[in-house]
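pasting for ref
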Amino acid sequence: MRQRKQIWIAAWAAILWICLGTAAFATDAGQGEAPPAQEQGELTEEQRLQQELDTVYAMPVQSNEIEGWPQAPGTYGEAAIVMEVESGAILYAKNIDDHHFPASITKLLTSLVALENGEFTDPVVFSHESLAFLEPGDAYIGMKEGNQITLEQALYATLLASANEVAYGVAENVGKNKEHDYAWFIEQMNSRCKELGGENSNFVNPHGLHDDNHYTCARDMALIGRELFRHPEFFNIVQTLQYTIPASETTEEHIFQQKHKMLKEGNANYYEFAIGGKTGYTDQALSTLVTMADNGDMQLVCVVLKTHGVNVYPDTRNLFEYAFANFSKALPAANEKSEDVAEILDEKNIVVPNGVEFQDLDMEITPDEEADKEGVLTYSFQGNLVGSVRAVLSQTYYEKQEAEKAQKQEAAKDGKDDKDKKAGPLENKEIVKKCVLGAAGVILAVLVSVLVKLLLDGKRKKRKNRKNS
């Protein structure tokens, strides 16, 4: 027995020695073939930046995953979207609901709320609060406490010069002119974004200077940009290359220029179809950009967020060229042949990939409970929304609805009858089961009684026998 135990110990020791020797050999061989780990991990600053750019560019583009959808380029921004204005169709989507810091593109929402709640002639007076938050390096035009300008002049300074103190003054004074305050204006920014369909934003200031709780997403900013197409006065402002606020009794002269390079003819980044937009940058947000474009046939909003390097303008151009080249408008009023539709009420287009026929689209009808015989026709391609229109629904549609409703009621009734029919035998089985259990209980009770009696009789007999003994 002892000899067998010694053999096992020797075997295990040999195995352990072989494993350790193999590991040591592998380590020595590795040291001879590759540089030390520290040297392997070292990258030049240029290599590190290129690696970062490659990683961002390689992020998935979700719209490219739609079967039959035109394949689009990547971007050096971590999120991007192209939305067609008339239909609201999303033509390009990359992480469009991810939270990102907006920086100064915030001022688009500030301007929208101001345009909807103020008049160009309203006064904007600069308070101590509208200046006190500024830090060195923040964009401003040098307004002073007590200066007064008009809301129109303030919007030029907000959108062209990206003046942070002026954006604050707009929020404070529009709130005051509506018999509210600055906080009310911020509330309006958030509620207006939600009304437009924005679900992933939280705005805590009107200028976009960094705050961890101040964020948005590409989809929400595209919805805001789309809504601004309802305001031609906005485009008058953002297409201006230079603007002057003249000197007055309260204010000295201020001159500033357009910052969006795609709107500046002669600039290397100029884009002939660009008609408006807003730039943004902070260390945390990196470059952000919203741009509106119109090629005479289609109007688009492009948003790029957290763009790495100097790629914000090339990315935007690439996305516009992709969208203009690969999509076309279709008019439901001229193409819809469904017997469920009596009349299309909107002379409104939807947008489809080139080569996709109208009959290839899926159409869903949503009746309007508040409008007699009207509803919304929603069109999609491979599950991706491409537009919607209002329509009068036909008598055929309602007859089919009534027929389907009757069928469901009949099916429900038949199901109930079947259930009732099945209930009888089941109930009988329950009764039989209860009877059997009851009988078994009685028999068990009798058997127990007999057993007890026999035991008692046995004990009595034993006692009697002992007594007789």
